[in-house]
Amino acid sequence: MKEIFNLIEEITRLDDTIYHELGNITHNGRAEFAAEHGYIKSVRILKINIARSGYVEKLESYINSHYQLLPLEYEGWEEWVRTPEMEEAMTHILLENKLG
């Protein structure tokens, strides 16, 4: 199933490092479950209803082609590893949304 992403999350890993990720309500629910069960430290939504730019579509396509939709109550946390090109797309997304 293809996921459509419309928000940006800030995720804090257990080692206190932070990264940003595209998400949606389902992904955020999974992240909240992971935080409550100690797989990540925390998650917070930085911006909702982000614009569907070319960078969002590019990163969304990458995530959908490399990762499976996990159940809401997944025991663990899967961090989506990005290529340098996808890292650059995420940087542009943050800048487009005045978060970087």
Structure at a glance:
By secondary structure, the chain is an alpha+beta fold. The protein has helices at 25-36, 54-66, 84-96, and strands at 7-12, 18-23, 42-48.
Total number of strands: 3
**SS summary, helix count:** 3
Q: Which class of secondary structure composition applies to the elements?
A: alpha+beta
Average pLDDT rating: 95
Query: Total domains, how many?
Result: 1
| β-strand amount | 15-25%
Query: What are the segments in which pLDDT stays under 50 over at least 5 consecutive residues?
Result: none
As a whole number of angstroms, the C-alpha radius of gyration is 13 Å
Shape descriptor reads: globular
Task: Please write the string of helix (H) and strand (E) elements.
Answer: EEHEHH
Major sheet details = 3 strands, antiparallel
Describe it:
The chain has about 100 residues and is α+β, with helices and mostly antiparallel strands. The chain has one domain (about 5-95). Helices cover about 40% and strands about 20% of the residues. It is built from 3 helices and 3 strands; from the N terminus they run E-E-H-E-H-H. The chain has helices at about 25-35, 55-65, 85-95; strands spanning about 5-10, 20-25, 40-50. Strands 2-1-3 form a 3-stranded antiparallel β-sheet. A hairpin with a 5-residue loop joins strand 1 and strand 2 (about 20-25). The chain is globular. The N and C termini lie far apart (about 30 Å).
Task: Using brief descriptors, characterize the structure shown.
100 residues; single chain; 3-stranded antiparallel beta sheet; alpha+beta
